[in-house]
Amino acid sequence: MSDYLKTGYLNTSDLEFPDESVVKQHFVAVTECVQEIPCNPCVESCPVDAIKMEGINGVPHVDFKKCIGCGNCVAVCPGLAMFLVNIKEGKGRVSLPYEMLPLPNKGDTVNLLGRKGKIVGAGTVISIRQIEKDTTSSIITVEFDDPSLIKVVRNVGVIRNE
Amino acid sequence: MNKKGAGMREIKSHPILHFDRGGQVEFSFEGKRITAYQSETVAMALYRNGINVFSESSKLHRPRGMFCAIGKCSSCMMRVNGVPNVRTCILPVRSNMQVERQHGLGEKPSGVVHFLSPVEREETVTIIGGGPAGLSAAIVFAENGVKPLVIEQNPLLGGQLIKQTHKFFGSKNEGAGIRGIKIAKEMIQKVENLGIPTLARSSAFGFYPETDTLGVFKENQYIKVHSNYYLFATGAAERMIPFEGNDLPGVFGAGAAQTMMNIFGIKPGNRVLMVGAGNVGLIISYQLLQAGVEVAGVVEAAPRIGGYFVHAAKLRRFGVPILTSTTIKRAIGVARVEKAVTVSLDDKFNEIPNSEKEWGIDTVCLSTGLIPSVTLLAQAGCKMKYSPYLSGYVPIRNKNLMTTKENIFIAGDVSGVEEASTAILEGQLAAYSILKKMGKDAALQIDETRSELEKLRSGPFGTKILKGLEEVQYE
């Protein structure tokens, strides 16, 4: 595994990833929580028992075949380390947690950002789901042409028109 | 940014918080009118109005601003209504106050200052500190028929929990997945519903072991507290590290930046250099982004990020660089930080020649560790021991958090710097231990709380604490 404690980011090769056949069926959760920390709300939030963890300090593992892509784990994860990925009609889709202002609007074109915050392409916001009543914290789903980017896109940059 | 005025530092919109600032009041600073919000402290009102310098040092007349913003250090002391050495960061604004910069050590007030006559209080249990540990203990006491007195030096209860906008880690019992601010709100509501007596804005300043008396100062009255049991949940203070210019206004404890933005809705600066990549540094850097402040970078002297990786990843995906094996060397500026210089370190923490880097920033935040606030416990005669794993001198205690004095207990960061989740559990454990001493049946709850604590400390992040506890636990 890459030296993520020096760099602050993971490489694609560090991660468990579902087969393309699964990703093409529906959204599937992927985890970027690789360090043993005392935390388990993702496990408790899963309605189909698809996240496994050994003890509270364990690392979560998603059973990609069981996962139904509901996004509960994305909404609850305190580390913002859960994402959903999907490929539909050849296009890539990623759902990610977003806790900044301004929020983009549905239909907006946004910059797609990788794990280092670098722009890796452009995408369209296809849904915004507010996850708390009293904050703007949301799950944003973006769609983009290059399906291979589902392994890369982990943030969006709102393009401001001023 | 010195002269850009009040509006520049006010946070207009925030993804997580809504600021209820209350109506406006006016007071005088150096003879000029300052407009403040009713909910503000004097230091916050001044800072929001663009004032960085609160005092000057006694010998070299260097400018000084606030540093900790929670009443722990003495950096924000000013002259208020003629009285010197007033900690303005915890002093609520009042209309027509006369606030002046303090020059040096401060002069004795010229007019007669009236103090109210001292009062005495008899209590069963007194809890010093109304943060997560103190409040969780207070709730356990009240639910078991004992009304403790809670003493808190800040105007608000909740300690550092009231500014933790991030979701908590841990398990369901500790509120995992819920934001700290919500946990705090629920605890404070519970304390109010249970009718627990609290003294806010009250500083416990001395403990007199001959008579087991706690000295408390509230506004301008001395309160002598006599209590059968004392629970110290006094928390910790931010650690200052030595570097050139570390006393310049604009060098803050990271927690101070958090207080400014998450409690008072004030931006600590426009562009920040964060020193320290432990959880505090990483979390507060992310919260700075949420407040609309640019984070130029995070530097960490150790070769690795000390906090949770997921917090680092959250920052990196917004493009914030994290430089390990790097530390701050110098803060530069006239009356406020204008830039900073960092330097790379080798594996023995020695500076690497010609590796300096200059940063154009206006704020430096230090998240270089916390020191347990143990002075009252030392005064009380509790035996202390130094443990680097617990972040400094801490009282020796048994597994149920009783110090070497049978009527004095501890909980939270004062017993060793850890997390809010463990502070909440320690508060509960200390309360059950005292209840047991009082003859109540609490053995089962003690066991349960202890095993819950053990679970949280069982991972790699708990090994440091467990090592520390081995050094300071007796029995």
The number of helical segments of chain A is: 4
Which term fits the overall shape of chain A? globular
Measured between the Cα atoms of the first and last residue of chain A, the distance is: 42 Å
Largest sheet, spatial ordering of strands of chain A: 1-4-5-8-7-6-9
**Number of structural units classed as domains of chain A:** 1
What value does the average pLDDT of chain A take?
96
Helix content of chain B: 10-25%
Largest sheet of chain B: 7 strands, mixed
**Poorly predicted spans of chain A:** none
Structural class of chain B: alpha/beta
State the helicity of chain A in percent bands.
10-25%
CATH classification class of the domain at 118-237 and 371-472 in chain B = Alpha Beta
The parts of chain B where pLDDT drops under 50 for at least 5 residues are: 1-5
Question: Can you tell me about this structure?
Answer:
The complex is a heterodimer of chains A (162) and B (475). In chain A, the strands form two sheets. In chain A, strands 1-4-5-8-7-6-9 form a seven-stranded antiparallel sheet. Chain A contains four helices and nine strands; from the N terminus they run ααβαββαββββββ. Chain A starts with a helix and ends in a 5-residue tail after the last strand. Chain A has one domain (4-157). Chain A is mainly β and 162 residues long. The mean pLDDT of chain A is 96. The longest helix of chain A is centred in the first third of the chain and has 5 residues, at 41-45. Chain B has 475 residues and is α/β, with parallel strands linked by helices. Helix content of chain B is 23%, strand content 27%. Chain B has helices at residues 42-48, 132-143, 180-193, 254-262, 279-290, 309-316, 375-379, 420-437, 443-456, 463-472; strands spanning 24-29, 32-37, 55-56, 63-64, 77-80, 83-87, 98-100, 102-103, 116-128, 149-151, 198-199, 202-208, 213-218, 221-232, 236-238, 251-253, 271-275, 294-299, 322-323, 326-332, 339-344, 357-359, 363-366, 370-372, 384-387, 392-395, 408-410. In chain B, the strands form seven sheets. In chain B, strands 9, 10, 11, 12, 13, 14 and 27 form a seven-stranded mixed sheet that branches. Chain B has a five-stranded mixed sheet with strand order 2-1-7-5-6, covered by helices on one side. Chain B has a five-stranded parallel sheet with strand order 16-23-17-18-19. In chain B, a hairpin with a 2-residue loop joins β13 and β14. The longest helix of chain B is centred in the C-terminal third of the chain and has 18 residues, at 420-437. Chain B is globular and about 60 Å long. The termini of chain B are far apart. The A-B interface holds A 4-10, 32-41, 44-45, 55-57, 76-81, 99-101, 113-118, 134-137, 154-155 and B 13-16, 18, 166-172, 176-177, 179, 289-290, 292, 303-305, 308-320, 322, 324, 455-462.
